[in-house]
Automatic annotation (TrEMBL):
Gene3D superfamilies: 2.60.40.2220, Glycoside hydrolase 38, N terminal domain, Glycoside hydrolase family 38, central domain, Golgi alpha-mannosidase II, domain 4. The keyword Secreted does not apply. SMART domains: Alpha-mann_mid. One of its GO terms (molecular function) is carbohydrate binding. Keywords: Glycosidase, Hydrolase, Metal-binding. Residues 514-594 form the Glycoside hydrolase family 38 central domain. Belongs to the glycosyl hydrolase 38 family. It comes from the Eukaryota. GO terms for biological process: mannose metabolic process; oligosaccharide catabolic process. Pfam families: Alpha-mann_mid (PF09261), Ams1-like_1st (PF22907), Glyco_hydro38C2 (PF17677), Glyco_hydro_38C (PF07748), Glyco_hydro_38N (PF01074). Its EC number is 3.2.1.24. This is alpha-mannosidase. It comes from Patiria miniata.
Length: 1052
């Protein structure tokens, strides 16, 4: 007689099966409780606390003392080593597997006979398979314990780390592992998930339900024969294949490891070792497993600190299991680095991969960055990369991005084929739910029949687990699910291309993340260093490249030092460091890197400039212009008591020496493009400036501007003489003035250092309390300036010098802030006398327009946006630009233009931005467009001042390089990576239109060859259909809008 058929309630049936494999409920009688059927203590545990993250060979020579389970170890970031002595019982000789189970409630590393074998942590890699250890004999191995978890040592997810945290050693024991039970658990889990997540409109959901119910009925806990019988039922179900037209999911293992975040750089080195050694161990048991891994810096760390592990990785790369992707040095921020920094990320990244793996990456990989510059597609393609993968835009708070697979088009028209994995995660668990979400979430179904699924524990590392691979084994070809295969990014993209891309949509411009906009401002010190050092390294490369043309200096280019500095700068551009979303210790590490770069670069710059000077008795002050246009500006010479140098009589051909308020000599100079000139020969005629003090205001005037400034430093009027109009539309009600400091409440929903929410704009508080009223500082022919000081609160203040120089088209604000606030946001605003529906912002190698209105949800989501050196709002014939030397956050709504200055979040760094800050910004009204009025050039000038130094006559006069078209900017001049006789010049079209330009040089150049940003010559040596020829002392180029062009210039 058959058993009674019971009507099946879906919820009860599913829960019954879930409880049967639960690790929480009924483990004394369910299947999960039989996964580790035998347990035994280890023979002994010995411990050694060490002072730092020391290598294995050194650690094992230390003195170890006996310890036991239950003890706690710390403090945070400390390292403890353990020697585990054990003997496998002879009675376990017939067991499937014997493992060492470990839980120190922290991260740890297993060392087996001097080989880094595997990572351990309390969440997903809890034991280590003991292979090659005969039963009945004594054995030992070492475990390196790190006093931190996968996500550091803070409370919650983003809380600051507790420096005194300890970690309990709660488990160290030998266990047997029942492989048959493990397999059956994952059969049941897969069927439960299919029954739960396949829609009830699909009969396959109910087939899975009844199948798993049958399996539970078959199983008798403790009876292996019943397990095998239940598995046969599962295998029959899994053998039913899907249709030929079903969607294909390309599954790829991944361990997203932040190069620093809630832990310091030094701990990331070990995170990489733990995660990657675990992955290699899994590959030994799962030959189809593919693991995708980015960031050349992390590979290089492992190469240096764990050479044996790196050699295993190299062999796995050759077998196409360990897949390098990205092509960049680190997964950098996608908004804040300069265009040249983006180039160097790819230059150093691709060269590293080519050197160590003999292959370049063809997929740009940036899954966790807070937005993506509209110039990245061109840079990506210039780096020899065709494809791009990210998923971060799934985090957008307001609008959902409309595509999963699409063409991303940059501001120059370059395109790269882009994919957003539809599961909206770079670290899924490879469950049925993730697979079904991948298909359901694909926004281009019908256009594309393929999607990527990334699986593995990430952010703090860990990577894929054995459980994830077991799940994927079961769902490869199962009716009711898409086809799933272990794959690689290139295989995915090639499948898409093979089926055709003509039907794909395009997205033009930036990929703007509607979240984390506070990262444009947080940790202002890091952002200031970044901007300053980007220009400083540029200048060092320029002067030493020029030295290559001087007899005797070729071969003395400081390549090693520049490589080291660039790699440090690029490391700090990681997407949780430069944005400021990291713990205090990371900030301190980054600042140390910056300080080392600054010290080395400063010396190299002076050495390079002196090398450009000939030995001569003609001593004097010299000025170096590092930009490719002629510029006139006021410079300050060092005071005699500060520095030995030429006497004031030799400074300039002027009747009287002009001093500023600090006693420095001021000179107005006019310097040729990219040239080295004496101050005497470059001095220019002066149109005097003047200060007029009246009741309630002070006027600063030069030939371009008349600024009326009140006692608080607010600009009541900024008259542009040529346009005969005021740049501002001020209003006393609400305190809308030029240079009005405003304070906003800054309390996000969760991500403290990351987010500024739109509602902060509703909390505007003008700062109107003066410490002292405005005072005149400088009042001479070359410079007029005033000083103001304001209270922000009883703890914070602003001190500012507002100045106007002879010949200068902008009013400059040199600002010092003492900042000790809590969840406040400081900005400065300017109410412009301009009407425009768009504002324009400087980005990498170009500019971008964004709306000033809130018409749509896409418009209103851009309440805080990124800009680099300048932002501009213009109507026909007139506009106003806001320049800065180290800020990135902007907002332009209506006619109000704001520059974001300082934030004060408390997590994950409770001291973020506290202390003193110095920065400069300037306001520049202009006639015509910002292009023709020189806004771009003036912003460069503000960020890259003339370099003044005491020296002697240069080896050669005139411009080293110059361009006859202001639309074309020479961004970089450097030595070629592999040839001391070749200089690389990188330039770009900056106005947004086609441009014809002639590049001239006083250097002896024999020929010019176009190359990509990796310095590889391009076919046919042509640019936009025109052959590149160096004729005499020049080359003529035809550029498309925003086009980046790199040239190899061969020195004679």
């Amino acid at each position: 007689m058959n058993a009674t058929a019971v009507f099946k309630n879906k919820r009860c049936t599913l829960e019954r099966a879930e409880k049967f494999i639960s690790d929480t409920y009924f483990t004394d009688v369910n299947l999960r409780g039989r996964l580790y059927p035998d347990k035994q203590p280890v023979t002994a545990i010995y411990h050694c606390a060490v002072e730092d993250r020391i290598p294995y060979h050194e650690a094992i020579t230390r003195d170890f003392t006996k310890t036991e389970v239950g003890r706690s170890f710390g403090p945070t970031w400390a390292t403890h080593w353990f020697r585990i002595e054990f003997a496998i019982p002879k009675k376990w000789s017939d067991k499937d597997e014997v493992r060492l189970a470990w839980n120190s409630n922290s991260e740890a590393t297993v060392w087996q006979d001097g080989i880094l074998a595997q990572g351990l942590n309390k969440d997903n890699h809890k034991d280590f398979i003991l292979l090659g250890y005969p039963a009945g004999k004594p054995h030992s191995l070492y475990i390196e314990m790190a006093c931190n978890g996968l996500f550091g040592a803070g409370s919650g997810l983003i809380g600051p780390p507790d420096p005194n945290k300890t970690f309990a050693l709660s488990k160290v024991e030998l266990v047997t592992f029942d492989r048959l039970v493990f397999d059956l658990i994952h059969d049941i889990e897969t069927l439960v998930d299919m029954a739960k997540h396949i829609p009830e409109t699909d009969q396959r959901s109910f087939q899975a339900l009844y199948t798993v119910n049958s399996m539970v009925n078959i199983c008798t806990v403790g009876n292996p024969d019943s397990y095998r019988q239940a598995r046969q039922v599962a295998q029959k179900f899994f053998s039913q294949a899907p249709g030929s037209s079903c969607h294909t999911v390309h599954a790829m293992g991944h361990a997203h490891i932040d190069s620093a975040w809630l832990w310091p750089y030094a701990e990331t080195v070990r995170k990489c070792a733990r995660s990657w050694s675990t992955t290699l161990a899994l590959m030994d048991r799962h030959p189809d497993y593919k693991f995708v891994c980015s960031q050349a810096q992390q590979y290089d760390w492992v190469r240096i600190h764990y050479p044996g592990l790196f050699e295993r990785i190299r062999r796995s790369v050759q077998k196409d299991q360990f897949i390098p992707v990205g092509g960049v040095w680190v997964e950098m921020d996608g908004n804040l680095p300069s265009g040249e920094s983006f180039v160097r990320q790819f230059l150093y990244g691709q060269r590293f991969f080519m050197k160590v793996f003999q292959r370049k990456c063809n997929v740009f990989w940036l899954p966790d960055t807070f937005g993506y510059s509209a110039q990245l597609p061109q840079i990506v393609r210039e780096a020899g990369i065709e494809y791009f993968v990210t998923q971060k835009l799934s985090w957008s708070l307001i609008n959902k991005f409309p595509h999963s697979t699409f063409w991303w088009e940059g501001i120059d028209g370059s395109r790269c084929l882009t994919h957003f994995p539809p599961a909206d995660d770079y670290g899924t668990s490879a469950k049925v739910e993730d697979i079904l979400k991948t298909v359901k979430g694909n926004k281009d179904k019908g256009r594309v029949n393929h999607s990527i699924l990334l699986f593995g524990h990430g952010d703090g590392g860990g990577g894929p687990s054995e459980e994830m691979l077991a799940r994927l084994e079961r769902v490869k070809e199962v009716d009711g699910l898409p086809r799933v295969k272990q794959s690689t990014p290139v295989d995915f993209f090639e499948s898409v291309v093979k089926e055709g891309t003509d039907n794909l949509c395009s997205w033009v411009g930036e990929l703007y993340l509607e979240l984390h906009q506070g990262t444009f401002t947080t940790q202002a010190k890091l952002k200031k260093y970044n901007r300053k050092l980007e220009f400083m390294l540029r200048n060092v490369e320029l002067v030493h490249s020029l030295g290559l043309a001087i007899p005797g200096l070729r071969g003395r280019y400081p390549s090693d030092q520049l490589d080291h500095m660039w790699k440090g700068l690029l490391l700090n551009q990681f997407h949780d460091v430069l944005p400021g979303s990291c713990i205090k210790q990371v900030v301190e590490d980054a600042v140390k890197i910056y300080e080392d770069i600054e010290n080395t670069a400063s010396k190299l710059l002076m050495d390079g400039l002196q090398a450009l000077c000939a030995a001569s008795q003609e001593k004097g002050y010299y000025v170096f212009n590092p930009v490719s246009w002629q510029r006139g500006e006021v410079i300050a010479l060092a005071r005699q008591e500060d520095e030995e140098g030429p006497t004031e009589a030799k400074v300039a051909k002027i009747d009287s020496v002009i001093k500023d308020c600090e006693g420095k000599t001021l000179v107005l100079v006019d310097v040729l493009p990219m040239s080295l000139m004496s101050v005497r020969e470059s001095s220019a005629s002066v149109i005097p400036v003047q200060v007029i003090q009246s009741e309630g205001s002070i006027l600063l005037e030069n030939e371009h501007l008349v600024a009326s400034i009140d006692g608080l430093g607010r600009v009541q009027s900024l008259w542009h003489r040529e346009a005969e109009r005021d740049a501002f539309k001020t209003c006393d009600q609400g305190s809308f003035y030029g240079n009005q400091f405003v304070l906003f409440d800054d309390i996000p929903l969760f991500w403290d250092a990351w987010d500024v929410m739109d509602y902060h704009l509703e909390t505007r508080q003008p700062i109107t309390k003066a410490v002292t009223s405005a005072q005149i500082l400088d009042n001479n022919q070359l410079r007029c300036s005033i000083q103001t000081k304001l209270f922000i609160s009883d703890k914070s203040w602003i001190e500012q010098v507002i100045s106007l120089d002879s010949g200068c088209p902008y009013l400059k604000f040199s600002t010092k802030v003492e900042w000790h606030e809590n969840h406040k946001f400081l900005k400065v605003e300017f109410p412009l006398n301009v009407r425009s529906s768009n504002a324009t912002y400087d980005i990498q190698f170009g500019h971008l327009q964004r709306p000033t209105h809130l018409n749509t949800s896409w418009d209103s989501a851009k309440y805080e946006v990124v800009g680099h050196k300048w932002a501009d709002m213009s109507e026909h014939g007139f506009g106003v630009a806001l320049l800065n030397d180290c800020k990135y956050g902007h907002s332009c709504h209506g006619n109000i233009m704001r520059l974001s200055l300082l934030r004060s979040p408390k997590s994950p760094d409770p001291t973020a931005d506290m202390g003193q800050h110095e920065f400069t910004y300037a306001i520049m009204p202009h006639t015509g467009s910002f292009q023709e009025s020189g806004v771009i050039q003036q912003a460069y000038n503000l960020n890259n001042p003339l370099v003044v130094f005491p020296g002697s006559l240069p080896h050669q006069g005139g411009s080293y390089f110059k361009v006859d078209n202001p639309a074309v900017v020479i961004e970089t001049v450097k030595k070629a990576e592999d040839n001391d006789n070749v200089v690389v010049m990188r330039l770009y079209e900056a106005f947004g239109g086609q441009a014809k330009a002639t590049i001239q040089s006083s250097l002896h150049i024999s020929r010019a060859v176009r190359c990509n940003i990796l310095e590889e010559p391009t076919p046919n040596n042509a640019l936009n259909g025109n052959e590149i020829k160096w004729v005499g002392r020049s080359v003529q180029l035809h550029l498309k809008p925003f086009q980046i062009v790199s040239l190899l210039l061969f020195l004679e």
